[in-house]
Design brief:
PP2C family protein-serine/threonine phosphatase; membrane; single chain
Length: about 350
C-alpha cells in the first residue's frame, strides 16, 4: 500500500515552489495564446530553486523549465523559431547563475552550522551550570546572548569554593565578536585556577590581569566584580568599573553596594600601578537571608520604547525575594522583557547570591 505524504511535507519540499511557479506560467501561457511570448519566463523556476535545496534541485528545475519551453513552443507552432532558442539560452544562463548562487548559499549554511557547533562547545566550556549551593551560599545564574548566530558572548560569571569562602566573578568584556569570547575564556580560566587556592582575593585579580596581558592583544578591557563571601557572612569585593551590585536584605531593604574606591577594569589596572589596590576593597557583613544581585550592563542599560534605562533597584529589587534564586532571576528576566518590549540588543549575565548558612549543608 502506498502511503500518502502529508500536505505540510509537500509544502516544505524544495521543489514545490519553483514547480508551482512554472506551472502557473504554463497555465497563463495556455490561456493567453500564441501571440504572447512567455517562453523565457520559465527561467523563474531554477532562479527560485537557488534559494532552497541542493544544487541538483536547481539543475532539475532548469531541465523542467527547458522541457516546458519546448512543449509550449511546439504547441504555439514556434518550434525551431529564433524566440524559442533565445528562451532556451535564457533558461540555460539563469540555471547556471542559480547553480552558482545555490553553491554559495550552501557553503554559507555549512559555515553557519560550524559556527553554531563552536558556539555550543564554547557554551559548554565557558558556562558550566553553577550548583544551587556552595558552602553557606545559595546561587542562581542566568545568561542571555544578544547574538542570533551564537549563544555566548563577552559576559561571564563563575563561583568556586575556597578555604577562605565562596569566591565569585561576574564580568563584561568590552566589544563584540570572537575576540570578546576569547577574553572571556581567559578571565574564566584564570579565575578557575586561582580562585580556589589564592590566599588573598587581590591575588586572584592580579592573576586575571596577568593572564589578560599574556593571552590577549591588549586592545580590550574587562569590567567586573571579584567577590568573596566567608562562612561568617563577611563580603569582600573589588569593583573593576562594573555596575554596583544590588543588596536585598532579609527584611526587604534594597540598596546598591557602591565601592568605596573603584578599581580600573581588568586590562587597564596597569595605568594605576601593578595589580589591584588592596585598600580599595569593599566590605560588608551579610546576614542570613540577605541576597546580592550581580549583573552586567546588558540589564542596567536595557531601554524601553522611550529610551529610559531599566531601573534595577525599583523593578528588579522587589522581585529578588522569596522562592529560589533561579526562580527570582526568571521573574527579573520576564520583567525586563515586559519593560523593553523587544529582543535584547546586548548580552547580559545575572548572578543572585543568598547567604543562607543554616539552609545550605
Amino acid at each position: 500500500m502506498t502511503r500518502l505524504r502529508p500536505a505540510g511535507l509537500m509544502a516544505r519540499s524544495p521543489a514545490a515552489l519553483p514547480l508551482g511557479v512554472m506551472l502557473g506560467v504554463a497555465v497563463v501561457d495556455a490561456l493567453t495564446g500564441p501571440e504572447y511570448n512567455l517562453l523565457p519566463v520559465y527561467a523563474a523556476g531554477p532562479a527560485i530553486a537557488a534559494g532552497r535545496g541542493p544544487v541538483r534541485n536547481v539543475v532539475t528545475m532548469g531541465g523542467v523549465a527547458a522541457l516546458l519551453c519546448l512543449v509550449f513552443a511546439a504547441k504555439a507552432d514556434r518550434f525551431g523559431e529564433l524566440r524559442m532558442y533565445v528562451a532556451l539560452v535564457a533558461i540555460g544562463y539563469v540555471t547556471l547563475a542559480a547553480v552558482y548562487a545555490a553553491w554559495l548559499r550552501l557553503s554559507t549554511e555549512r559555515r553557519l552550522v560550524d559556527v553554531q557547533e563552536v558556539a555550543r562547545t564554547l557554551e559548554d566550556v565557558l558556562f558550566v551550570p553553577l550548583p544551587p549551593a556552595i558552602g553557606p551560599v545559595r546561587l542562581g545564574a542566568s545568561y542571555v546572548s544578544a547574538s542570533r548566530a551564537t549563544r555566548v558572548g563577552g559576559d561571564l560569571y563563575k563561583a568556586v569554593p575556597s578555604p577562605y569562602g565562596v569566591r565569585l566573578v561576574i564580568a563584561d568584556v568590552q566589544g563584540k565578536g570572537l575576540g570578546t569570547i576569547r577574553c572571556a575564556a581567559v578571565v574564566l580560566a584564570a579565575f578557575r585556577e586561582s580562585g580556589p587556592e589564592a590566599e588573598e582575593l587581590a591575588e586572584v585579580g592580579s592573576r586575571i590581569e596577568s593572564a589578560l596581558n599574556r593571552s590577549t592583544d591588549g586592545q580590550r578591557f574587562v569590567t567586573g566584580i571579584l567577590a568573596q563571601i566567608g562562612p561568617d557572612g563577611q563580603f569582600l569585593a573589588f569593583n573593576h568599573g562594573h555596575p554596583a551590585p544590588l543588596l536585598r536584605t532579609a527584611d526587604g531593604g534594597i540598596r546598591f553596594v557602591e565601592p568605596d574606591e573603584p578599581v580600573p577594569p581588568f586590562g587597564l589596572t596597569g595605568l594605576a600601578g601593578s595589580g589591584s589596590p588592596r585598600n580599595s576593597v569593599t566590605r560588608l557583613t551579610l546576614h542570613p537571608g540577605d541576597r546580592l544581585f550581580l549583573y552586567t550592563d546588558g540589564l542596567s542599560e536595557a531601554r524601553d520604547g522611550d529610551g529610559r534605562f531599566y531601573p534595577v533597584d525599583e523593578r528588579a529589587g522587589p522581585l529578588l525575594g522569596g522562592s529560589t534564586p533561579e526562580e527570582a532571576l526568571r521573574r527579573v528576566r520576564a520583567d525586563v522583557a515586559a519593560f523593553t518590549g523587544a529582543q535584547p540588543d546586548d548580552d547580559s549575565a545575572l548572578l543572585l547570591v543568598e547567604f543562607a548558612p543554616r539552609a545550605v549543608p
